[in-house]
Specification:
Distance between the termini: 17 Å
Strand order of the largest sheet: 1-7-6-5-4-2-3
Number of strands: 9
Radius of gyration: 20 Å
Largest sheet: 7 strands, mixed
Shape: globular
Order of helices and strands: HHEHEHEHEHHEEEHHHHEHHEH
Low-confidence stretches: none
Number of helices: 14
Structural class: alpha/beta
Mean pLDDT: 96
Strand content: 5-15%
Length: 361
Amino acid sequence: MFKKKKVFIGGEKVIPFSLYFSKRRRDFISENKNYYSNYYIDYTFGGYHSLLAIIEHLKQKHNSFEILLPSYLCHSVLTPFKQRNVDFFFYKVDGNLDPDFVDIKAKITKEVRAILFIDYMGKSLKPKVVKYLDYFECNGIEVIQDLVQNIDIKKEHLYGDFIFNSYRKQYSFEGSILLSKKPIGILFERGTNYRFIINKRIGQILRFFYLNLRLFSPKAFLFFIGRAEECYYSNKIYRLPSESRHLLNRVDSDGIKIRHQLYYEKLLLEFESYVPEVFRERSTTFLGFFIQTNRRDEVRMNLRNSNIFCPIHWLSPSDIGESNFSESHKLSEQALTIPISDLDESNFEYLKYNLKKHLTS
């Protein structure tokens, strides 16, 4: 029915050359300053760097502290805590990705000084968390709001003492905005993480050549992308790169949000039964189309063979015991995110056809 040649959905993308010279102009720094006027604003190299800055601030404030983390998360979230020797403990997250506040209360001790919540796929937890903010404050606990999977940071959805995102989850370049209720005073490393940028750009370009021209091999681009990831977690805090600042002033963020919502709703009409209830609404701009299936690995492989590259959010870290967090492990074994940022009228039907073929068969 479809020719899969030249149809590629998901995976690492090259930065469109035209974006560097786009006539579209905005001043996103000034826009954010006006929009998030109740917060102090910093910009870092990425979500990891923003979280590292938060940890540094909390260590200066408390000398030593413990933190509660959700039992459903990416293993990379643990990296900065391990690097700074911060003890972390997990609280339960149920099958609908809601925090278990009974479990949270049971695990709060005098050593716990922070708790992290993740707004999964961009769905705000504010209606759930806001009920407990006074309780956390009375116990001297500061709230970290992880918006890494959020592409539409609305101020009415903010509830954390510290809030951060990751631009590389939306775009092909790096960066993060860090909002805080009090100044953090970040000690930035001089310069930028050029080793990451160079390896990442080479990997993105080699992947483009392989997919479109069949030049080089997957090992080539995977090597450079892998090396870039190693450089990313450098144990240092870097500023937002000047390249990213330039591109953020030119990217059509509103158009991206509109496109996300359009194709998310179209997919929801066809595959709603595979989507957790929390992600079935139409008012949120979701990062991707999150589904659950017992045949996850099989479906993912079949889609990859059709040039549809779907990430897993997430494989459960070994730090999280399966016996105590069975629902999180079940999610981890079934979750698959269908990328929607690449979709347009020319490839949506191709995606829908392959999802029906491999998911519902």
